[in-house]
Design a protein that fits this description.
Helix 8 runs antiparallel to helix 9 and helix 19 runs antiparallel to helix 20. The protein contains 20 helices and 35 strands. It is globular, with a radius of gyration of 29 Å. The chain is an alpha+beta fold. The strands form six sheets. The chain has an eight-stranded antiparallel β-sheet with strand order 5-4-1-2-3-7-6-15. A seven-stranded antiparallel β-sheet has the order 16-19-28-21-22-23-24, with no helix packed on it.
Amino acid sequence: MNRYRICLKALTLSTFAALTASPFIFAQDKPDPTDPFTATDTPQPVFKSNGTVFEDGRIEKLTEKSLPSLVTITHSSREGKIRGTGTGFIISADGLIATNLHVIGDGRPIQVELHDGTSYNATAVHAWDRRADIAIIKINAKEKLQALHIGDSDKIKQGQAIVAFGNPRGLQFSVVNGLVSAIRKLEEDFTIEGGVPDFPMIQVAIPIEMGNSGGPIVDLDGKVLGIVTIKSLVTPNLGFATPVNILKSMIDKPNPVPIKSWLTIGNLDPNQWQPIMGGEWKQHAGIITIDAYGSGFGGRTLCLSEQSVPNAPYEVAVKVKLEDESGAAGLAFASDGNEVHYGFYPSNGQLRLTRFEGPDIYSWKILKQVGSDAYRSGEWNQIRARITKDKITCFVNGQVVMEVKDDALRGGKVGLCRFRKPVAHFKAFRIGSDLSEKPLAKELMTRLSKQINAFSNKGGDRRKFAAALASHVKPSRKLLSEKADELEARALELRRLTTMLHETNIQQRLLKILNQNEDNINLLEAGLLIAKLDNIELDVGGYLLEFDRLAASARQTLSEEFSDLEKVERLGQFLFQENGFHGSRGEYYHRSNSYLNEVLDDREGIPITLSVVYIELARLLDIPHVYGIPLPGHFAVGYLPSKNELHLFDTFQAGKSISKSEAADLVRGTTGQALDERSLEPSPKRNIVLRMLNNLINLEINEKDSSKALPYLDLLLSIDPDRAPERFERSRIRFQADDRDGAIEDLQWMIDNEPPGVNIDLIRQLLERLQ
């Protein structure tokens, strides 16, 4: 009996909501389901105290035994100064050291000091997991090192005696004892330092201070049970450690990156940006972030664009968001590449234009400062400056806020600036002769306004209306937003329409890609469009250019003498050994692993997204016969030069070459079923896209608010409208989201089309009840 009929039999006529108890089970790539830290929804047992007590002299002996395995880890700023200090511990005699990822910093040189005072520079990041906040680094030690033994965090007992080692506030190699308070998954609003993990943590009754991060929590036999990660901001004697079994999976399946490559991760492209005066400028998912204090007076730091600047008149614009309005961040222009420039930026809720002509306030002049209703505190604001020969005009969200006559500085570079401490975020930086919003053609504006007014007054079918506006996305979206502000009572409906317009546009663009010849389908672009459903600001073109640069780097590693198979194997080395792409272990089911832009940013994903990166690189490098192989529960890459010559590669295990029998073991381990030979046939690219969507649908359905699955269901059904299980699932979710008309539409489709395996009589009864 198929999954669809099973779900239908669970229907009752009393209420559509009864379906919530029996949702469809979609195929999704997954690792070992018995791993409690991967299956984050697995209920955790309540542990009881075992009454362990400390014996006289035992802590001293344990400390003496463990100290030689402890290290102090520091990472440097751009200027070479120590920016952060933490703890680590040796896990192998040949120089592998475990710590927190935040201890080693993103893209920074890493120094390690052993207990005997010997110092080393890290030569590689052997493994790293951003969501678990764990890293393993490598040093080339001159002598054999003493490693700590790794325990089993699954066997931890509440009340168990433990000992923690670390470097609190720079006091090297300190020790403190305590107890395991609990094993618990933290609520999202829990008051801690750092983000809240999605997996169960070890709660410890131990003082946690700066510098303890990365240190081991050991039992009284000296076996590591966890890694100190975060502390409570409410009480000093409450901290949390990451279970050591997560570290075990990283030891078993590393994703090594040479330190030379590590220094580029998260950094801005030096061909596009030049940071000056310190700070830590990073880029992720198209957003530039600065969170460290600049070395200039008042924390000033700049990030100058390498783009050419037109002669005046010209304009420069960016969207900026401050995490705290006590900060100041915005545009820099007419810069000499050092301390001389203009700055236009929000500061303490006002807008300020300043001329900087030296290192401190004695050479700075505030030209004008004003308040403006156009500025929205705590939100993204577009700021723009127009520079002419003798005047500077400044805008916020399209409104003029100041005009200042000043011609002291001209020429030079443009870019971003930040002052004081609070974190600032930037996106959509642009330079041009005229960056203003262009007025709509009068005829088009009149027609769109008339249509929007009619919909606002009378309502109607949002889907059809969104489709009608899709050929004029930007002007339509702008008018819709304006109308929503004007008619507050209808704002929610209009914003829903704006979202649907975005989703309709994504559908049309994705269908255009998939309707091409199979060889011409760009899987990367298709996957980026899927990610753009949740991130309207995602710059698809920018990521495609970045991927082209990655392909150009890969091409340099391929010898003309290589066979096609050797090129495929070399491509795997390039991705996984040299550039750090790896399978996500700590939070396999995180949405980021299904968003290709974040897979490229973090170099972390699940089998299908890592496979798409592999396949698309092969396509750009003209390596033939590289396909996606749709193993149930574990997607793979295949090289198939002829019908009976299949070479399989597991992207989740660093591109490891696997046999058919190993593939069968993977399938059996994830699904409990035998491998069907048809699963070894190349997957059409359309099916790969559908499988990526199915993964996201399944993730959202398992959340409390399953309505978030609707955009993915809509997109999937626009590609393959005959998929009855997904259509039925959409009907159920639409009903739960109070979209009765949409639910009826899907049920009516099923009656009209009578897909196989469906109890049509039951569907008719349900439809009658809804009507």
